[in-house]
Amino acid sequence: MDGRMIAAYARFGEVVIFDTTFGTNEEKWALGTFVGFNNFREIVIFGAALMCDQSTESFAWVFDKFVEANCGKRPITVFTDQDSAIGKSLEQVLPDTKHALCVWHIMKNAQKKLCAGYKKKDKNDTGLLGEFCKCMFKYEVEEEFEKGFKELAGKVDKKDERWIKFIFDCKEKWAYCFMKDAYTLGIRSTQASESINSDLKNYLSCKLNVNRFMDHFERIVDAKREKEIKSDYYMTLRKPKVRYNIPILCEAGDVYTTNIFELFQKECELSGSAYIESIDGNIYTVGMCNINVEEPSRKSRQVVWNRDEQTIVCSCKKFERVGILCCHAIKVLDREDIKNIPPRYILKRWTQDANDDTVVDREGRVIEDAMLEVRNRKAQLMREASLICDKVVHDESLFQFVLDGLRFLLLQVEERDGNHDEDNSNSQLENSLRLKKKDGDNRSKRRKAWNENLSRKKKDNGQNILNSQSLIRPSNNLSQDITEEHFGCYGNLEDIQYSLIY
Question: Which residues form the SWIM-type domain (predicted)?
Fold first, then answer.
C-alpha cells in the first residue's frame, strides 16, 4: 500500500471487494486485492497482498494488517467469493463488518446444480433456476423467502441437497430480503475486482519474480489512477446534461459527479410516474404507474417524512444501500414543496469535492496527493481554452489566428522543455528498466513533438513498455453489477446482462 491507496480508502472505503487470483508470479503465490468505487463509481485500488497460502490464519493476518495500515478504519461491507477460509477470517478480524457473497458466483453454481436434468412442465414454468432467482432478488420479506426456498429445496435432486443446504445456511450474505438494509453502493458481485484480476493475468507472466511482478503491478495501478484523473479532468470541461430545468436536478448537477448525477436524474424521471396513494400523518404511501403493461407492477412504498428534522426514510431502502434518494422520496419532497435535496442526503463520497479533504496516515502525517496540483493545472488550462474555443469556432479568421498561435506556442514549449537537462531523467528510466548505460551516450537530444511520439507509438503496436497504459486492456464494464431485472424469465444465465445499480 502507498499513501494514495490509504487516502483513497479513507474517502471511499466503506464498501470493499476482496478477491484472489493466481498465476501472476513464478512463486505461484496468490494475489489478494482490495478494491472499491470512487466518487465517479469507477474502480479504485485500496491495497494488495501476495499470499503463499490461503489458510484462515493467512487471510486473518492480511485483513488485520490492512486495517492497521488504514488507521484502524474498518469497512462497513466486504464482498468476497464463497471461500470458507475468508469467511472465518472475517469473523475473527472484522466481526462488525457485513460479509456479503458474490451473487454472480452463486448463480453460476446454481445453473450447474439446478438446470441439469430438470424438465419444465409448461411454458410458464421458469424452472428451478427461476425459483432460485426469485429467492435471491424478488422476495423482500423473510417469511416469503423461507417459504419459496423450502419449495425449491423439495424439488432438487438428492445429489444437490448438500449444496442447497450450504447456500441456505449463508442466506444472510446473498438474499435480497437480508441484504436490502446493507450499505453496498449498489454492488452485488465481485466482478469489479475480477476485472482487475483479468488485467493482471493478461499482462503479467507467471515467470515474473516478486520484484518484477510488483513493478508491473504498480504500472497497472498507475493506469487506473490515470483514468480517475481523466474523469476528474473531463468533469471540469462539461457539466452533466440536465434534461429538465427543475431546482433539485440543477442542484444535483452542481454537486454530484457525472455518473452519480445520471443515476439521480433517472430517479427524478421515475418520480414523475409516482403518485401519492394515501397520507397518514407523516407517512406517505407512494405508488408507481405501470406504463408498460408487459412489465410487472411496482410495489407501493411507505415514505416517512419529518419536516422539523428534515429527514425522509423510504421502505425501499435505496438511500441506505446506494447513497442517493429514491424516486419515492423525491415524490414526497415535491409534494411537500421541498425543491432542494436535504443536506444530509448528499453523501460527500459521491460529490465532485470528494477528494478535497485532508487525510493523515497512522503516524499523523498528512498524505499529499502528488497529482492534485496536476489536475488543478489541467482543469484551469482547459477552462481557459474552452472559453477561447467558444469565441472563435464561428469565425474562420479568428479560428485560424488561434490555431496558428497554438501551434507556435507548442513549438516554444517544446523548445523550452528540450533545454532542460535530461541526464537525470534518462538515468532514472534506465535504472527502472535495469538497462546498462552505454558509454559516451550523454548527448542532449531534442524532445520530439507530441504528434511525432504518437506516430512512433502506433508503429510500436503497443510494445513500448514505458507506456503503462499499453499494458492494460480497456474495459467499459468495470463498474457494472448484476440486478434481478436482467434475469428475464430467470431461466438462462447466459442472457444475464449488467447494470450500474441494484
Answer: 301-337
